[in-house]
Amino acid sequence: MSEKILEAPDTVQNPVEQATTELKQRFPESLSDETRPGYEGLIVSPDKLREVATTLRDELGFNYLSSVTGVDLIDDNKMEVVYHIYSIEKGGGPIVLKAQVDRDNPVVPSLVPVWPGADFQEREAWDLLGIRFDGHPDLRRILTWDGFHGHPLRKDWKEPFYEEDHKPFGSRWPGGGVRRAEELNPYGKNVQYPPGWVPTGDEYEVETDLYTGLTIKKDETIDLKTEQVTVNIGPQHPSTHGVFRMVVTLDGETIVALKPVMGYLHRNHEKIGERNTFIQNIPYTDRLDYICSMSNNLGYVLAVEKLLGSEVPERAEWLRILNVELTRICNHLWALGFLLNDLGALQTPMLYFYIERELILDFFEALSGSRMMCNYMRFGGVAYDLPDDVRGQPTLQFLDELVNERLPRALEQGNELMTGNEIVQARSIGVGYLSPEDAIAYSTAGPVLRASGIPYDVRRAEPYSYYEHLDFDVAVRYNGDIYDRYLIRLDEMYQSLRIIRQVLPYLKETEGAPIISGKPQYALRVPKGGEAYARVENPKGELGFYVTAKPKGSNPERYHVRAPSFINLTALEKMTVGHKVADLVAILGSIDIVLGEVDR
Amino acid sequence: MTPGQLALRSLIVGFIITFAVITGFAYTTLLERKLLARLQGRIGPNRAGYIPVPTRSGKPRRFLGGIMQPAADAVKLFFKEDITPAKVDRWVYTLAPMLAVIPAILILAVIPWAGEITILGQTFSPYFAIAPGVNVGIVFVLAITSIGVYGVVLAGWASNSKYAVLGGIRASAQMISYELALGLTVLVPIMLADSMDLGEIVAAQKGVIDWFVFRQPLAAIIFWIGALAELQRAPFDLLEAEQELSAGYTVEYAGMRFGMFFMAEYMKMIALSAITATLFFGGYRGPFVDQVPALGFLYIGLKTFIGLCIMIWIRATLPRFRYDQLMAFGWKRMLPISVLNFVVVGIFIVLQEEGILQPLFENTLRFLGIG
């Protein structure tokens, strides 16, 4: 292994520090430093939050709101809202703003006027933590249903059949006697209904807020009696890629307004995560974006490694990059297949792409034992070394053939057959336009952001793993329509192939080297506690994990997922209004969502 | 032969052909599923039934796996609960599938399946069809196919569902716009054969070289596109549009009522394939058909089969148009081209009949210094 390639590049000047000092000078009274050990960022007084955010966006160049989440500080009787703000131009780390409010009456000014992308994230924080955002245009529940009572991520909220706060749970049969959790905690004791709700009746009107938000106008200018209709597309619909619903107001076939409704698959991933020990969460992250389990693993593992401060051996890093890039190809083949399917090309292109996707899945199976739920990464390394052979071929030979022959050929074929197709072009060029400014403001990430002409890729902007040593280009397209979102995925697959070609020699070179540092342990303790936010460039966009830990206890205190599919959906209405129903499904397909991640 | 005998004979022939085509419909569904599967690199239905082919090893080889799939589908559809949703317009809801199927069967009446032929002592003259010698045969076909749209529109309307209504609206708009182009293109074979009788149109295409497709390839292409639109096949399958409207006008239908829409679609596929063959590909004509008239059945069957395969191939290949693009394509491209084609063909026919074309052609060649 050459020493030169692993040399870290010089950091010229840290833009985060620069901006922090600048901010402190401007708002000396309302900003203070985070004092808790292991925590970073600035504490903002809520009344100045919007001004600080505007300054950051307009004057200091920190214009990309990545994540908004809340933390329940039950010991201090406070609620904290955490904002991670990045700079598109300068790259690098985040400016972390924290607003602390009284837990009994948590009101924070909404940042939707500054960043429209905060919309869904603030609604999520309201839904799960009960933090009210003053000035939010449409503060409704988003993941749980309308009749849900309480805010489940609050530390004092307990689910039905609640057993204990943390895993591993104590014995369910203490002293050998059999008891069931249901007996201890009868159903109904923890189920709370909103006032006036009758579980068996339909007197309670659900979703009135949703429908009243959609105004139906009548065109008075012409004599013909016309009316707009509200159509529910989904939750059971072939093109919503799962159980996702869009309430659409139509004027003829033209979309006038759209509201996405999600949460049908909601399982409160974050609450489960907070009950689990750190290591039990790795397989849970597989289920977020179930097509890219490898990259999900990596994001979470990076966040916890930041907390633990653990080192990763070289071979493990190469293995990680190999798998993450294969996952990217896997996901994009899937996404393109479905996009073309949504354009009405039946399943033919999809099935053509799947032939090669199968090979990647076969490799994953040989490597980790599972085709989709890989559960492969570990803190400080990976779980398994490369298998001896895949599909009867030596592994490296198989990978070599896959990367140098099969995949390029499949991409070439797909490109040749579909890219120039007149109907594909007529259906996708100029449809679902998202301007670069909007793409940033709506916090879109991944291919959606880059297809709008913003060359922002976490692998380059804030490199993790060995990405800074690898030679690849950030794919970028400038038209921001469906066609560009289609092309950019092809581009990214070619770049991923490039990366894998560079990784393969190192895998050969480091054969037999350790793949995990330290000895594997079941219960991890974070010595001093603290917080960590790690983000990776998932195939669907920027996937972030915000994990905080207490000095004691082997489970996260707060575990938040910044899901790219979920946040990319914020821009859906912007892209679709004015287009036809047929375009709606194509636009949704071009965002490429996975409901496991949207609903969490 | 008295008119009564003639009517009785037509009735019997009608029964036979209708049942043959209904069987054909069942196997077209299998053909579509199998062929689509092969085009997409899959295997397709292969579980329901097979033809055992004896081999030396004693264990019979399974040939044509899935051959009983249509029967299984039919049994499933018949035994499914036939749900009528609560708030539908009951009468229209029941009527709509029938309105879709009946026209699809009626089209078969005028298609010539063979030339003059004697079967069981009965001579069918001038050609073998349910209703031979209808002198406005092609107009009848156009008229009846247009009725089919009522089935779709009424189904959409009666279902009391927004998806279904959108599908129904799309259907009416699409059919009206493509019928024009289709009708204008049909005029070209009529002019070339100087008759509206389908039998005479076939008779005008004596040898392979006389097929109208070689004299008027443009008209044949436009007719084919129009036929696809008329059939609501891909890439014009907007009114079903699985990805957009889930199933369009059929969302609220279940069991055999849904099956009837399916049946209408596939029977129309067969009928329009046969009509395309008749108008442009010499119908039942082919080598030695004058000596052995029974070959006519084979030839038109083969041509229809090829037509069906091409439809399925197109479905596996092309994405779907958007509603407004479909309209634009119909009105701005198809219609002007077919009008222009029709006018040009008309002018040339007049020139030829007046004896101007030949001298004009020779003079042009002389003027260019070639002739």
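Chain A has two domains: 14-134, 269-599.
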